[in-house]
Structures are given as structure tokens and as C-alpha cells.
Amino acid sequence: MNASLVVVGAGPRGTGFLERLAASLPLLYGDEPLDIHLVDPHPAGAGRIWRAEQSSLLWMNSMAEDVTMFTDDTVQQEGPVRPGPTLAEWSGLDARSFPSRRAQGAYLRWVYEGAVAALPPNVTVHEHRTRATRVGGPRAGRQRVWLEGRPEPLVADLVVLALGHLDAELDPEQQELAHFAERHGLLHLPPAFTADSDLSAVRPGEPVIVRGFGLAFVDLMALLTEGRGGRYDADGTYHPSGREPVLYVGSRRGVPYHSKIGYTWTGERPPLPRFFGPAEVDALLSRPDRPDFRRDIWPLIDKELGFAHYHRLFHAHPERTAVPWADFEEKYAAADPAGPGLRALIDASVPDPADRLDLEALDHPLDGVRFPSYASLQSGLRTYIQADLTRRHNDGHSVDLAVFLGLLSVYGQLQRIGDVGGWWHGFFSFLASGPPGPRLRQLLALSDAGVVRFLGAGVTVEADEAAGVFRAGSASVPGQWIEAAALIEARLPEPSAERPGSPLLQALYEEGAAAAETGLLQVDPADGRVVGRDGQPHPRRFALGPFTVARASGAFTRPRTGGAAFRQNDATARVALSFLRDLACRPVSA
After folding, report:
1. What mean pLDDT value characterizes the chain?
2. What's the pLDDT at 495?
3. What's the whole-model pTM score?
4. What is the dihedral of CA 317, 321, 326, 328, to 10 degrees?
5. pLDDT tens digits for 518-528?
6. Residue 188 to residue 167: CA distance in whole angstroms
7. Residues 6+ positions from 524 with CB-CB distance below 8 Å
8. Quick count: other Cβ atoms within 10 Å of Cβ 377?
9. Which of 140, 131, 132 is nearest to 158 (CA)?
């Protein structure tokens, strides 16, 4: 029987793993026969999120020039570099445009087909357009992967789970809201992927409470406005079709994610990592106790991002600083990350407070801000969004791009530590993974047209049994409430070990796989092996992607930024190939 590898999930993460497998296979595995089974109900390459069967109104969150599926010499990997084109280079799209997700899906399909074509003749790829429901088998023997609609399982020497973003069953709060909506004939849409949500029940003109102001909201906004026949004219004014609802949107922060940066880098880049690199991570991992994120890790991250910020400020805008860079750098390096001396140094060296980096203030832009009415809140939020757009498209504030580069560097280092809690990932997305500038300009136009209205920060939602409506309030406008017969949770499902939306993941947990406190699957950050509740990594099961504690910032990335997911894919592919090669030298267990 041929050696066999099952990859569950053939979207961008599964495709990236396959590309790395093809790159190292001739050197590590040789010419023995190998069967690779790819299991995914969605098209290989594009997968669920990037499939062609979705609205053309849904955009990528990155410019075409900032998207690649190929490694370069900045990726810290043992496998060979296989360069390839960015989405812009492959498609001929405007490099600075934000393509549709359909366009990205076509690129991913091409990458997938190229990875398959790069495999040598001794490797056979089998596609299974269905779902995997369970993985079983002994640690020392072949694994069995059961597929939906098929009585006999696939038999595999190794299994790699590249499941992508997962659904989740409703948590207690969402269950209560769903039951309340059912009792009163209301509409409740729980956390989900917006492209998969049925929005047909959202009635024209009705008020809708929307909880969530990130990228899921941006998709919702597009589908319920342009998707219902509204249009923007040449000067950006929105002309309603009359079929739109009125979206009352709020969240914990009360503001949308920061706009994508609209200029390119020039000049010297900050030398990263500097204060949160391999040596610092080694020290954290060598501790006898597990490092605490806020106490042990965050001060190092804060100092690292500050270094990126001030390196750019001193080099690009020395007139806005009070001391020479060499003096500042020496004292900055020596300062305790968590001590008062670092703040005193910054205050003395950077005269204008607007030029200083305050990550806590960035994370809570509306803290302590109160508005006398919802009408005044609308004006205040429009001013905030316009200021963000202006700053993010003005290279006089290129310190923001330096911090973005710092965030990417930090994300790569954190993968070695594993699960650091959900706050960091939300913070990263808020600063570094926001919507394209044109989307925020559309948001402003929709606000002007009265189609979108802001709720503010610290939003709470109540189910009013007596009135039979949902009520939403916020800390930004105390004591005032919005009532609606519809509630949409515009956010992705939270990972949960108790309520995973994947039967396969549920079965893994029941069999003994470990979950972190955040509900993510425990894996060995070094090679992606699934870790059991006994603390031991499974020798034949691997997992890659956002459902694991070693989640990266994306399955694809900007060129020449290290590609943390690429590094993971490479490491897992090489461990898998070495295992399969060694297995060929000894008898196979049934």
C-alpha cells in the first residue's frame, strides 16, 4: 500500500502547505509512491472564503501588490525558496487596487494548480469535494478519516488539518437572543461569515441593531446598500434605492477598524525585530512558569512597536524631535520596558504629544468621551473617521506604517509562544487589518445619507420582553436607547472547545486533543503537531491555521515581510515528509 497523506482543507492554507510539500519533496522523500488526498467541499485553492460563488461587491482587505502566496528570502525556513508573482503581477490588476474576493480566488486556484503540477510523477493527488467528519486511529498506526456521505474512511499515514475559519455553535447569550427573537417574531442573525448569511429577511427601511464594527460589518454594509441597488455617484454621494434598512452600528470600541494605509514606504526601514525577537522569546519559553501576556510579554511588544515608531520619526522627521537619534536609541535600549524611565525619555525627546505612540489610547479611542445625544455622536464619529482617513493617506504620518511593520514582526515571534489570548489578535486587526480607505469613505457617505447611524462604544444589547424588541445602548450616550426588531451580530464566531462548529474538531476533542483557554486547538508551534490533554504531540496529526493556538496573521501575506504562515507551512511539510520517508523503511501498521 502506498504511503498516504490526507489534507483536510484545500483553501489557501492547505494550498500553501501543498506548495511547501512540493518544494521539499524531491530532497526529503525521494521517488517512492505517495497518495495525497485533499478534502474540502469548496473549490481547491479558493476554499470557502475566496470562492467564486459570492458577491462581486465583497473586496479583499489588501491591495493587489500586497498579496503573495510565494516564499522569498525573508521567510525563515529550511525548504527551498520558490518565488512567484503577487496577485497584481499575476492578474494585471492595478497594483494599488483592492480586488474582489473572486479575483483572489482565481489567483489561489492558479497557485493550487501550480503546486499540484510541481509534484513529481510518483505523487498522486486525489480531490474529495466533501467534508471530513472524524479522524481516528492509533498513535503508532495509520489514521482513518471519515468523509460525509462515504461509508469507508480514507486511510492515511499522516493527517494535516487546514480547516481555515470555523463556525461555532451558539453560546448561551446567543441562544437566549435567538429564543427571544423566535418568541416575538424578530430577526436575529448570530455571529457568522457575512457572505454566508441569509440577509433576505432584513426588511427595507427597518432599524437594525448591528453589534460589531470590524470587517464583517464592512461586508454587511456593502451587501445591504449597493447589494440592494444603491449607488455612489462620482463625488462619493450615496443615492439610496429605498430597499436599504437603517443600520445602527456599535461595538466595544465604537469605531471602525483603522483604514488601510494609502501610501508606500520610502527610506530606511526599522531594523526589526529589536526588542521582541528570538532571544526574548527564548527567555520567555525557558521560564519555569508560563509567561503572562500582560505582565511579561506586552511590555516587550510595546517597546518593540515604540522602537519602530520612533526609528521612523527620528529618521524621516528629525525636526519633530529634540535630541539626536543615536542618543535616544542608546537610552531607549537601556530603559526598562515597564518602567517610568522609558516614558520620561520619550516625553523629553519628542516635544509634540501627537508624535508619541500611545497604544493604550489607540485601543480605547472613545474612553471617557460622552455625547449628549445620538445626533451629536453622529457628527463626532464622522469627524473621527475622516481624521483617520486623512492620516492614513498622508505619508507625513509614516510612523503608522512603521508600527504596522512592527506588528507583523511581533506576530511572527508570538507564534513560537502559542496562545496569548484573544485580545492581542483583536488589537492587531484593529490597527493593521482594517478596511480599504474607499470603504470608510463609503461609510461616511452612508452616514450622511442616514442609512448608517452610530451607536458608540461599550454597546450593550437587551431583550425587552414587555415591548417585544431588542434595545441597544452605549457608554457614549448614557441613558438613551435604540429599539429594533432586528439584531445582527457582525463578527466572526468565537472559537470554542465546548461548542465547535466542526464535527471533526468535536471528535478530536472527545478523543483527547487539548484546547487552550481561548477555545483554540493546542498544537506544537514548532511543527503544528496536535497536542493531547496529556501534553504529548500526536506523531501523525498536524493542524495549521486560525483555529489553532499558532494562528498566523493570514494564509498569505505581503511580499518580503517574513510570511509567518509560510514558515509554519514549510516546517510542517518537512516534518511530514521526513516522517513518511522514515516510515517507508519499516513495516506499516494497519
Report:
1. 95
2. 84
3. 0.94
4. -130
5. 889 999 999 99
6. 16
7. 531, 537
8. 25
9. 140
Return the percentage of the chain with pLDDT > 70, whole number.
Answer: 99
Strand extents, DSSP E, 324-481: 452-456, 460-464, 469-473
Question: Using CA atoms, how far apart are residues 152 and 137, in angstroms rounded to an integer?
Answer: 14
Residue 474 corresponds to which cell in the numbers above? 452605549
> Where is 404: in which H helix or E strand?
helix 399-414
Grid coordinates given for 130? 466533501
- Per-residue 3-state assignment (H helix, E strand, C coil) for 313-368: HHHHCHHHCCCCHHHHHHHHHHCCCCCHHHHHHHHHHCCCHHHCCCHHHHHCCCCC
CA distance 265 to 308: 13
Q: Which amino acid makes up residue 31?
A: D
- What domains are defined for the chain? 3-168+495-583 (3.50.50.60), 190-257+435-457 (no CATH), 278-367+389-432 (no CATH)
Helix, strand, coil percentages (3-state) for the chain, rounded to 5, are: 40, 15, 45
**Residue 28 C-alpha from the chain's centroid:** 32
* CA distances, 259 to each of 87, 216, 301, 427, 454 (Å): 21, 15, 22, 14, 17
**What letters, b where the CB count within 10 A reaches 16 and e where it falls short, cover 532-558?**
beeeebbebbbbbbbbbbbbbbbbbbb
The answer to whether the peptide bond before residue 85 is cis (omega within 30 degrees of 0) is no
pLDDT: is 299 or 590 the higher one?
299
Q: Is residue 15 a contact partner of residue 69, using CB atoms and an 8 Å limit?
A: yes
Find where cell 445620538 sits. 374
What are the tens digits of pLDDT across the range 207-255?
A: 999 999 999 999 999 999 999 999 999 999 999 999 999 999 999 999 9
